[in-house]
Structure formats: C-alpha cells, structure tokens
Structures
1.
Amino acid sequence: MTTTVGSTVYATTMRALGTDVRLLVTEPTALPPALEFLDNELAELDSVASRFRPDSELSRTNRLAATEALRDRDRTTLAVSPELAELLTVALRVEDMTDGLVTPAAGAALVAAGYDADLDVVRRRGPTTEPGRPQPISTPRIMLTGCRVTLPVGTQLDLGSSAKAYAAQRSANRIAEYVGGGVLVDLGGDIGCAGTPPCDGWRIGVRDWTGRTRQAVCVHANQAFATSSTRVRTWQYGRRAVHHIIDPRTGAPARTPWAQVTCMAADTVLANAASTAAVIAANKALEWLARRGIPALLIDHDGHEYRVAGWPERSTGEEI
C-alpha cells in the first residue's frame, strides 16, 4: 500500500524495521522535526521489540523463556520493561479481538518456517533442509500482570505486525501533537493519520504485490489502513515457497485464497489485526469482516477483487 497526495502535503521516505517508511505532513516547516521524532520512535521500537536483534529486549526475553523451558516447567514468569509490557498489552488485545487468529505466541512457528533473521538474510541463504511437521500453537494463554509476563513452556514471542501497526498510529498521534497540522505515517503498509487532514483529504493508493495500484481511496477523516499479503514477505524453505502469516491452528504459514487483504478502521492496530485475521480466516474471511463491519478490499491469487462492509467501489474513470 502507498499514499499519493496533492501539492499541499510534504513527504519524505526512509528505511526502518526492515521495511519502507513514508512520512507526510501538511506544514512544510513540520517535516524536519517530525522526521527526527519518527526516527527516534522507530529506533526505540527496534531496540525493544525486534526478533532479529540479539540485543533487543524481546530477544533477551525469548532466550530467558527458552532457558526456563529446559527446567521442565509448564510456565515461566519474567519481568519486562514498561515499553515491552505496553506492546504486549496491544498484542494480547489483538489476540482477543481476532478470537486467537492473530497471536504473539507465533515466534517459534516463524523460526520453524525458516524466518529466523531479517528477510534479506533468509532469502540469500542456500538450499535448506525440508522443514519438519508444524505443530499448532499452544492454547494456554500468555498472561501479563503489570510488567511481569507469564508464558507457556516453549512459547517464543513475535510482536511484528501488532507492534508495527501500533507504532504507526502512536507516531502519527505524537507527531501531530508535537508539530501540529496533519500527519500520516506509513510503516510498510500500516498507515496511521492524525491531526487536521489536507483540504483535499488523504488519498490512499492500494498497490498489489506486482506494484500495480488497484484503487485510490480519498478520506477526509483520520482513518487508518493496513495491508496483509502472502505474496510480498516470502522465501524458499525446503522445496516450498512460504510466507510470514502463521495460522496458529496449524503452526504453519496460512493456506488461504487471499494474496492480499487491505482493511480500513478507526486505528491502525485494528486495521492490521483485521487484515491479518482475514488472511488466516481463508474462505470465511468475507463473513468474518462483514460481521465486524470492517471495510476491506480482498484480492485472491488470481487477481480477482472482493469488497466488503462498505469498502468503496472504484470511481468511474479512475486511473489504475
């Protein structure tokens, strides 16, 4: 997903968290301080929640949990920082709102599927052994009390999607409060808006995995968007091409008819949770989204489009 805007908006791009980042503001003087603020926010997030940095707090927590598992305990309780506790709170809220389809307990399943390092590193590797039989993710709940987290034995945390979505919305909100005007933060397709939108609205372009813009949606309120795709974060593991969206019911990358799902919601966390859950829900995705009233554009592997819950139809004469 990308954003296209008129002449009243000022934009810059950067790379962070292993993805493309775009920052847009409505006031030209706001761009330098907003960029500095965003850079600091994302650096802090990376130091807390990266699964690929050995010095991140999340990596240290996962190592401690693995050590405790060797002691034949059913559960282990660990102290975490307020920052990691905040991100875990968001991830557990996502787990609740998706009825467990999206869970922070997917770290071990991602490692088992070969996603144990930055995607560029994973893709550069030579031939790998055929992956073992995946196992459903354990059903006992992760418990968080203040700054203490209790994990079922064998659980490895991954906060990738929920933390990135939360950062997009939180950064947009904080930058708007800090510099004023309108702000849009796009973290690899997770889009959060805050402040006063441009007079002609935010124009959100939905791109598919080929780079083709399928539709542009113009919004004049601060809506949030998120896209989940099974065709972008992919790699070869054994003889199979796999992706990063884990179905906790199987412990393997989701088998789904959807190449891409884009959702619109009041905040980026909800939009991301819905788009990821819809991919995992597979043939039940349209019903799942409609029942919750979440507007979405779904694209299957053959390129066919499906709109649900009031997602706008393509405008007549709109360029694609």
2.
Amino acid sequence: MDSRYDRPVRTLLSLIIGSVAWLAAPSLPAQDFTLPDLGSSAESLATPEELRRYGRQLLGSFRQAGLLFDDPLLDEYIETLGYRLVAHGRRPDQHFKFFLIRDRTVNAFAAPGGYIGTYAGMVLLTEREDELAAVLAHEVAHITQNHTLRGAESASKASLPIMLGMLAAMVAASQSSSSSSGDAAQAAIMGGMGLMQQAQINYTRANEYEADRIGIQTLAGAGFDPFAQADVWVRMSRFARNYGVSPPEILRTHPFESTRIVEAKARAEGMTVVPRQDTVGSGHDGRYELFRERLRILTNGSSRDLVGYYRDRLDADPDSIYDRYGLALALSQRDSFNEATRLATGLVEAHPDTLAFALLLADIDGRNGREAQALARYRELNTRHPDRAAILAPYAELLLKHGDVDDATLAANLLRPLIDRDTDHAKLYALIGRAYEISGDENRAAEAHALSAAYNGRFEDSLVQFERLQRRSDLDYYQRARVQARITELMPIVLEIRRRPSSASRG
C-alpha cells in the first residue's frame, strides 16, 4: 500500500463495524441458536435509507483515497459472486454492495447499509472460489442479522456519521504533503475514539457464532462446499502464525480459537448442498482463478517481478491457462506487447468464450497502435455480451481518445443504458460526461460530471455542481427533476459532513 495510507487508515478500516480475518472463535455449545430479533429497537437507530447513505459516504471516501479498484471486470466478479449468496440468504430483498479494497491485508468487513468490503489480501489467501464465498457468506449474515446495529443499540445514532467523519479526516490528512499529516490522521482517530469503542461490542461471540451458522447455510444453499468455511478459517490461522500477525488491539478481546474450526466442520458434515445450476466464477469455467490472477497483478508494485513469477510457474505447469493469462497481463502492464499479444491470441483462439482473454487482447491492441482492431473486438464483444461495464468502459475510453464527435456520440449511446440503471461505477459517469462534452451536450455533461464527483466521495463539490446546473434556464422538465432529486439526496450528506468537526470534538 502507498505510504500515504499507512497505519492510520489501516487502523480505522479495522475498526469500521468489524473484520472477518480476526473475528472471535466462539467458545459456545454446539447447538444452533438464533439471537433474538431486536426489530424496530435496533432498526430505529437509523432508517434503511440513512444506512445506505452512510455506506455510500464510506464507499466514496475509500474511492477518494485511492483504496478501490478502478476495474469493472474485478467489480463484476465480486458483485456477481456476492449477489448469488444474497439470493440464497435470509433477506434477498435487502440492499447490498460488494467492493474490493486495494490492499494486501487479509481482511473483510461488513458496514451499515449492506456494504461489504473484501481486501485483495483475503482473495489472494483463498485457493478456491468456495473459500472466498465462505468469507462473503459470513459477512452477508452479519448484515441480514442486523449485527451492525445490535452492537450500537445503546449508543447514539451519531456514532455512524462520526465514524465516517473520522475516515474522511484521515483521507484528507493522508493525502496532505505536510509533515504533520500523520499527526492529523492520528488526531482524527483519537477525536472519535470514545464512540468507536462502542463498535467493539458489535461482534460478540454470539454474533460471530450466528454469522458462522447462517453463513454456512447460505454457502450450501448457493451450491458451494460448506467445508470451505472451516478451510478458510484454517488458512487464516496459519497465515497469522506464519507471519507473526497480531489482530488489531480493539479486536483482541476475542482470540482466534480452534473451536471455531471444529464447529464449522461439524456443521458442514450435516449440510445438504444444493447443486449449482450455473457457475458464477467457479472452477468449472475458471473465472475465479482468472479474477484472482488479475487481482494479484493489479495489487503488485512491480510487474517485472510477476513476469518472473509466472514464468517459473509455467515451467512447472506449461498447460496452466491461468498462469499464461497472468503472464500476458503482467507483460502488457510493462508494455512488452509482442509477447503479450502472442500469449493473449493463443488464449483467445483456444477459449473464444472466455471474456477475460478477449478483453486482454483488445486492451493490448488498443495500447499498441492497433486501435481499429481493438475497436472491432470491443464492438463484437458488446454484441455478444450487451451492456457489460467490463466491456463498455474500455470500449468508450478508446472511442473518446481522439475527441471525434461521432465516436463520442457512439460512446454516450453505449454507456447510457448503464447510467440509466443508476450504476455506482464512478468511472462510467466520468466517461459519459466526457462523451457529452465532445458531442456538445453541455447539460448532460454537467450532470454526469456532478454524479462522478459524488461517487468519488466529493459530495460537497457534487452538490455545488448540481446547484449550478439547476440555475440554467435551458434544462428540460425531466433533467430538472433529476437534478432536484440529486440535490435532495446530497443535501443531508453535505450537512452531516459540515457538522462533523464539532461533533467529533465533543466525542
């Protein structure tokens, strides 16, 4: 991780609502039980819309700090896997958002509003998709069982926005070039530590036991191996011992115990697995393995090191398509286009239906002076897989490269269906904003850029842009209604942000 986001940001991330890597091993009897439903008592702390608003602020702050991946292919995978688990969970109608943290810490967490973050290090620790699914299923259970509010029931609802305020303050401090930025970040932590102590009880042993039990039911119901839950706990335990890793101080009241692993295996023995009707990134189609290798490369500081890593692996197993993909991607990252093209072409010819291979070859063509060939590839892929952000983002980016009006109009038309679904892929709003600029639609461009600012965590800037747009006399009825709706949505967020310094100082 970049030194700007060093200990202070890591510390806060470990505090936000909880993390699976160092969760307590429940020393509880083997019988299953369910925590009592607190109903409106807990839910009265915040409405679902307030919780989603807090989650959006959290996600925007992560993105503003550069802690999220700007890669639709990665986003698509983790969201698809997560939503499959949600569909087989306790509350499939509840809002969820799955995202990846650009950091090799072995961790995952659930936050208010159904926001579930998984660190790159957690993905790289797993060895099969069932293990990653076990981690996500556990976090989904924390959300469906309302654990994020149970622990805070006796505390003020203000603790949620103050936690976000602490993160925002640390983000600002970490991005500062001042020598005092580290002190400012630590001060942001300490300013709200009194309220943050309440988060320690969010994940009691009983909550952890319940999340394990319900998570494994969700896992089996979605067609995954229930023994993967115990496997991933074992893997994390070994990782901690091998690397001498200690859990964050705030979580040390619950030491990792072998009881959790034993009980997970015992529960798995009695589970009936529902066969999967389709494979979502499973080993059957290799998407999990390709996702993991792509993540490995995009979190690595030196593609040159990974070129050697993949060459060594291919020497041991020349037939591994995953290592060939990894090598081709690593080579393309350091602009070694000839060998990367040869490898990617071979993969596409052998596996024409694997999207990751086709996208890699199109990307290499586009960056290696073969733009017409790349555009043709993207066009054909979009015909086969319409309205996929993983295809349309690089396709539109290439179309906009030279500022051609016709290409910009095409890019806008391609992106509009995704934008109309109110996607939270911030990059798409920036791209369609640029497309509208080039094609001469100033109002739509302004609207898209304002949305891009919001999804990138610049909420006050976004509100200012929308208010400026609202004053224009040439808006049509529908656009004016959309702009007003955005202002209404942003206003409480900005007011909360403006209140935070005084609130934090009182904490």
3.
Amino acid sequence: MVNRAVLTHRLFTGVSRQHLGSLIAELAEPWQAVVEGRRHEVRGGVRKRAAGAGARHQLVFTERVVATLIHLRHDLPHAVLGLLFGVDRSIVTRAIGEIRTLLARRGCAVPDRPGVRLRTLADVFAYAQAEGVELRLDATEIQVRRPVAGRGGRRAFVSGKKKQNTMKATVIADHLGRTLWTDALRPGRMHDATAARNEGIADCFRHFPEVEVLLDDGYLGLRRDHPGQAITPPRKPNKSALADVHARWEQARHQHSSDRITVEHALADHKRWKQLLRWTHRRNNLPDTYRAIAGLVSDRTANV
C-alpha cells in the first residue's frame, strides 16, 4: 500500500483536490442509494439491522472515487489499483463500475451556472437559444477491439476513414471550447451526420429555430435540410470564377475554420484522458466512460 493522500494528487486523478472534494460530496448520496438498492435485492426485503450495522466496506467511498478517476485518467489495470489500495481486484472492479455510472449520469456543466447541468441534446439547444450561444458540433472516433469472428454486426465497427474498428462520439462545444454535451457512442461505420440525426438533432432544429451550429464538410446533408441553422464551410466556386471570388472563398473558409476550431480543442481535452486514446475494454462500457470524462472536463472548463 502507498500513501493514499498522494493518490488524490491532480497528477493521478486528473482533477484538483477541490474538484475532487466537490465530486465526493455530490456523489455520496446517489452512491449510497445504489448500495442500498443492491443490498435490498440480495436480502429480498427491508433491512433487519440498524443503519450502520454489518460489515464495513474494505474500500470506502472516497477511495472508490479516487480509484475510478485514476483508472479513467491513466487506464491502470484493476489489479494494479487493488495493489495500491490494498484490496482485491474484484472490489476495485465493482467500485469502478458503480462510480463510472454515477459520473456518466451527471451530464455537462453549464458555464457560469453552478448546479445546472446539460444531459440531453434538447437541453443544449434550449440553453443555446436562451443565452444566444452559437454551438460547434463535431465527431471523433476511438479505436476499439475487433468483435469476435462470426458474431453479427462485426462490420459495423469498421471505420471507412480510420481503417480501424472504432466507435464514434458526437460532441457539442461553445465558442470557448467548453464541452456542453456528448451522445451515446455509435459504431464507427456510421456517418457523422447519421449519428447526429439519430440523436434527434432534426427535432431540435425545428423546436429551436434561433440556434446556429457550426459544422464541417461532413455535415453537408444537415445544411441542406436546415439552411441558416446548420452552417458548414462555403462551397468552392467554379474554376472559371474570377480570382477575387476564389480569394473571398478562401477567406470565408478560413474564418469558418477559425470559429469552429474550439470544438477540436474540446475533443483534444477529452483525449488527454488515456482511456479515450484506445479503448481495450468491453465496448458496452465505452459510452459511460466517455460521458463521465466529458462531464469531468466540463467541470474544469465551465468557469473559464
């Protein structure tokens, strides 16, 4: 065992100690409800002992949060974390599963609005229309394990762009690169615009007509369906056009890229967490992991 106070340092957890303290205070009650619910299922009824009686947790709640953050930040194996905290690997596995789910449910922080969080795409569009925020949307892909041979849907994860087995995450950020939302991850073979449509972006455009979203060339279909709201780079003029037309096009395209680059910065912030560089675990755990990391990153950038 090592000094557990050292493990709470930002170099290990990826968050400041102040941020860690607020996380512990926020998640303590939901975690207790999860534990009581699991014990209720095991008992098959109400508890028969007084509150606080019975066996103690070998890994207390604070240490469970720290172990989960270290796992998300550095992708340390569960066995290594068990050695650091002096418990069995299975205890760490259960702790990470519990805390990761709670982190994923938090959503993303709203800039300068303490206690308010965005969890759905409709929440983001409502916030953008109320505050007059111009959104930036983009997708990123994370390499995953190749599905087992003979299993249905194996080709769905093969990305035509990356030439790898990937899963695709769609992320929305504001003009300062602050993460506002991320979706349920999709197989890498799915087109970027299709992934956005499957999340209900067409309904959001219809219900929030004043919201504008900056996009790249991968979302030309959205620009066609929602002109004036889905904004992509300007189309290239014909070769026969005058030189000044091409110059204005180059300038407009460069300005659009400069305005949209903040969502790329948001994606880069997410990829600083090692688990999102290459996912080597079960694919069904990746959506919760990405949402958990996006929520943690949004906490840090919300006050920028």
